[in-house]
Every structure is written in C-alpha cells, then in structure tokens.
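User: Hey, my collaborator sent me this sequence without any context and asked if I could get a structure. I don't really work with proteins. Can you help?
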Amino acid sequence: MPHKPFKAVIPAAGLGTRFLPATKAMPKEMLPVVDKPAIQYVVEESVKAGITDVLIILGRNKNNIANHFDAMPELEEKLRQKGDLDKLAKVEHSSELADIHMVRQGEPKGLGHAVLRAEGHVGDHPFAVLLGDDLIDERDPLLTKMLEEYDKRTATVIALMEVDPEHIHLYGVAAVEATDEDDVVKVTQLVEKPSKEDAPSNLAIIGRYVLGPDVFRILERTEPGKGGEIQLTDALEELATGGGDGGGVYGVIFRGRRYDTGDRVDYIKAIVQLASDREDLGPQLRPWFKEFAATL
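Assistant: No problem. I've predicted the 3D structure and written it out in structure-token form, which is a compact way to encode the shape of the chain:
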C-alpha cells in the first residue's frame, strides 16, 4: 500500500558559535544569504519537492525563526498603502510558503535528539530531515531524487558527497556498495567523524535524509556518542546493518552545488555565487568581482 504523505523536519536548535557575536541574539539560520534568511531556502527546497508540512526544531532564543514565517499585517498593510507590491509579495511569500509548525528541543543534545523531538508531529509518516544551515542550489535538485528512491526501495535514503580526505573528520562517513543505478549506493556502514586513516570512504553524509518512522524507536534507545550527544549517524548505522523495519540504507551521491552556511567561508561563498547568478544583481556584480579579483 502507498505510504502516508511525507513531512519535513528542519533542525534549527544549534548555537551557531562559529558566527559569534552575530549569533548572540540572532539564530544562525536567520543570517541573510543575499536577501533571504538561510532557513527560507531550506523550506523552499522542501516545498519544491512537494512537501508542505514542515516542522522546525527550535532552540532557546530562536523566536526570530517563528516570527519570520508568521504573517505581519502591519508591515503588509504599509507596503500595500505605498503600492510597493513587489516587496509585499516577498513578505507574504514567506508566511504562505508552507504549513509550518514549531517545537523546542530544550537543550542541544545532538541531531539524533532533535529528530526524536519530531516524533509527536511526524507520527507514522515518512519524513525528510533538512539541516537548516545546509543549502542545496535549486538548480541541482537533490531531495526529489531522494524521495523517489525511498518510494522505490522503501528504505532510508541519505545524501552523500565526495569530500577531500583532509576534511573527512568533520562528517559522518559511509562505506558503500554499488547498485545498478548511477550515483545510488547501498550503505553498509556509517562512522561519525572518523580520522582520515579510519574513514571507510570519502563519501560524507550531508544534511539531507529521508527516513521512515521506525527510526524513532531506534533513537529512543540510542546512547550518547561522540561529543556526548545522541548522534543520528549511530541510529542510521543500526538501520544499515539490519536494525529497524525498513529495507536498509541507501545513499544518493550529490554532485551539485552545496553551501554550508554554518561555516563562515562557505557562507560568504554562498552569498557571492548566488548573488552573481541572479538576473537582478549579477550584471552589476560580476564586472566588479573581476576588477576586485585583479587587485588581489
């Protein structure tokens, strides 16, 4: 029988310490990427893939995220009176984008714990997890492919990306076997943040997952792992090695454009690339970038 509709879960409870002092009072997911907060790109990605029921996992002092997706009648009315319909449409877009819900994590106990906080909302639906500071360029769709693979295999699907072995210790890493489909692999082992010498491959998990509700049962008994946190990777490792009710774990290898807006350098790169590619900004920016680059 067909499964229930997908829901989306966006963990956004991290402290954002790499961006202090900017994130002392502002969530890192609300830092602007050109003229939209990073988390709006993630919600738009979910909607584009057909998932409009979105749960955002909030931490302390992150009310700005909820406010951003709420309607603002006073601002909307002022823009309407001024006849600034373009800005009005942008403001209304964020509040009409999806059916957005919020739940608090309380204290940051790891990604696995954040996902577990979604159980009451997700119930027995399959769901996608999209990390709130991990942007996938809309020109390189990933989530749609992952949902298709879940439907095809009734199995957990994670996004993988080849990374430089020197940076592999920053990621969860997968050991894989080939399938009969290009860039789709069967995951046989997952290791959280291994050393370069211990990594089973150079395929790192990036911030997109499609999970069945059986993952909650596993997360409930998952002990804290690296960093004293409940790691989603540890639960996925159990699924990959035969635990749970699904058909194992598969990986979709992503070869497109991804921006880690939780990293300062990648955050700046994201702004530069996305702004230079836009029709309204690119024609003015690209000549300036060339002139500036020539002075370096």
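In plain terms: The first strand starts at residue 7 and ends at 12. You can pass these tokens on to your collaborator as they are.
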